[in-house]
Task: structure prediction
Amino acid sequence: MIKIEKLNKKFGKLVVLNNLDLEINTGGVFAILGPNGSGKTTLIKSILGMVIPNSGQIYYEGKSILKKWEYRKNINYLPQIANFPANLSVNELIKMVKNLRAENTNEQELIELFGLTPFLKQKLGNLSGGTKQKVNIVLTFMFDNDLIILDEPTTGLDPIALLILKDLINKARKDGKTILITSHIMSFVEEISDEIVFLLDGKIYFKGTIDALKTQTNSSSLEIAIANLIKKQYA
Result:
């Protein structure tokens, strides 16, 4: 589904992506991990066309997507920070996004799942962080597309909402969709992911299953495995 070749990105003198190669096949949950500043967000934004790399290629469904934006309508994206217009109500925001994309949606089912009905007429600026994140998830999952990108999706969620999110991700996986996730919550990643991609200093140091990483690093948990991987690279 996604193929990245020799991708490079600098911001001034800072090298953020360094000759990066990556291939993500269709179907499954892939967690993109790494410490702050490792290049995760830049990689995600490059795939989305929000960041233009200095060199290299990105292919989506076999076609180069650099400096092309039409393909983005086929991606469901949940940003880490949803900067919603504070003066709009939840209903108004959902309607606006639906009008922009002009696709079939299932927002009503998601609204009920997350208990958002009492908040539909409230202004987004008056909502709690957790409620805004639920709205963010509704906007992401109400469209039926094959690629879903979730940047820190668990932020602000209560335990019940987190269970619903996990169910949505698992259903998407069963439907053959490809889900890319970034998260600092290793227990969530360990539970939900089929494979992980570990970035450090703009390079990929591991891609594969969590069990394979544990074996490679002789670790009992993903958290310890990641720590051991970082230590090895800086040793």
Observations:
- The beta strands are 2-11, 14-24, 28-33, 55-60, 63-64, 75-78, 147-151, 178-182, 195-200, 203-208.
- The domain at 2-234 is CATH 3.40.50.300 (Rossmann fold).
- The chain has a mean pLDDT of 93.
